[in-house]
Design brief:
This protein is α+β, with helices and mostly antiparallel strands. The chain has helices at residues 16-21, 143-155, 165-168, 174-177, 205-210, 269-277, 318-333, 350-355, 357-366, and strands spanning 6-11, 23-28, 36-40, 61-64, 72-79, 90-98, 113-120, 125-126, 136-139, 160-163, 178-185, 188-195, 216-219, 235-237, 241-243, 246-248, 253-257, 284-287, 300-304, 311-315. The protein has a four-stranded antiparallel β-sheet with strand order 4-2-6-7. One of its GO terms (molecular function) is calcium ion binding.
């Protein structure tokens, strides 16, 4: 899709005799070849085969043949890799005019002219849940739940995409498998789904049902083995914020982690390194390993608000929960049991919870 790609314009104004006696090369360094691709603009009415990649991958150089009647050659440039460890996202394409063949076999050609242009690969950007929704994804696991979400999506005027049972393979946690974001260049914006290394029943869903025209895909693996903290319920982003005078117009990424110096679970290094390398949303690690599952979305969320910064940060509060349970006990509901309808789960009553001193100590610590 030409509209997705950035243009590189090579202007060749000058004496025509130069181009008769020299080759004009467009080239990339070996270290950038797997991160940048270049394609020539096809002639009017040309077949798609002419829109082949001539730069990048195994192709380090391309000979440009300036036309007598045209002083510009247009190429389309695509990023082939997101910023990551060892790659700041900057890629360079150069041009040079060289003799048609080496003066002496085995010696490098000496260009009489060189020029270079540097592109920055657009980073992957997370979207906060305070932004207006565009599409809702849900797993077909519970008819009542799907119907309720469908009603909300209709009110929000959003299309609803249901992942059917054969595709979800009894994995209901779509929030843990994928995170939605986007890439944005001056001329183009489109969504990109980030696939977590969690890889349970939904692992094929992002590629099979989300990746497509104008919808990108990126993934990172956990070679050391995935833990619960690698699920993307453990990956959130704030709305735009200013911290100590520094503005973060795209917000800041929040990931759950272990308590410093005490060890414990951490999100896979490959995922953390990828998020840091995007630069624009400066990740912050929060202590979430005190939870059994350990995801940041279990104790914080951002919601829109009409005043101040335009949002609120909601934090789960064990103390507020205890006050609520005490209130219900005093209203005569002390024998109400938790987790009704769930098999193989203990069902403590409000009275039993309030009488459990060990549980209260831990919740005081968490608070």
């Amino acid at each position: 899709d030409l509209k997705d790609l950035s243009q590189l314009v090579l202007r060749t104004r000058g004496p025509r005799a130069i181009f008769a006696a020299h080759r004009l090369l467009l080239h990339v360094d070996f270290g950038d070849a797997d991160k940048l691709g270049g394609r020539p603009r096809p002639a009017d009415g040309a077949e798609l085969e002419e829109f082949r990649r001539v730069l990048g991958g195994s192709k380090l150089a391309h000979t440009v043949r300036p036309s007598r009647h045209r002083h510009e050659s247009v190429f389309y440039v695509e990023g082939l890799a997101f910023p990551d460890v060892g790659f700041a996202g900057l890629v360079a394409a150069g041009s040079g005019s060289q003799p048609p063949s080496p003066p002496c076999q085995g010696l490098l050609e000496t260009p009489i002219f060189t020029d270079t242009v540097v592109f920055r690969v657009a980073p992957w950007i997370m979207t906060p849940n305070t932004a207006a929704p565009l599409e809702v994804f849900v797993v077909d696991d519970n008819e009542e739940f799907v119907a309720a979400v469908g009603g909300l999506a209709e009110r929000a005027q959003c299309p609803l995409t249901v992942c059917p049972a054969p595709q979800n393979r009894q994995d209901r946690w779509i929030q843990d498998e994928v995170e939605f974001g986007y890439v944005q260049a001056p001329h183009k914006t489109f969504p990109v789904v980030f696939d977590s290394p969690r890889d349970r029943g939904l692992k094929d869903f992002p590629v099979r049902s989300i990746l497509g025209p104008d919808f990108g895909y990126v993934a990172r693996q956990a070679p050391e083995g995935a833990s619960s903290l690698d699920s993307f319920g453990n990956l959130e982003v704030s709305p735009p914020v200013t911290v100590r005078g520094k503005e973060y117009p795209l917000g800041r990424i929040l990931i759950g982690s272990s308590f410093p110096r005490l060890g414990g679970r951490r999100m896979a290094k490959a995922v953390r390194d990828f998020l840091v390398a995007q630069k624009v949303q400066a990740p912050v690690e929060l202590f979430s390993d005190w939870l059994c599952v350990g995801h940041v979305d279990e104790f914080l969320s951002f919601v829109p608000a009409p005043d101040r910064q335009g949002f609120r940060l909601l934090l789960a509060s064990p103390s507020a929960c205890y006050r609520l349970l005490k209130e219900k006990q005093e209203e005569g509901f002390g024998e109400a049991a938790m987790f009704q309808g769930l098999e193989r789960e203990p069902k403590p009553t409000i009275n039993e919870i309030l009488a459990n001193e060990e549980l209260r100590k831990f919740n005081n610590y968490a608070q």
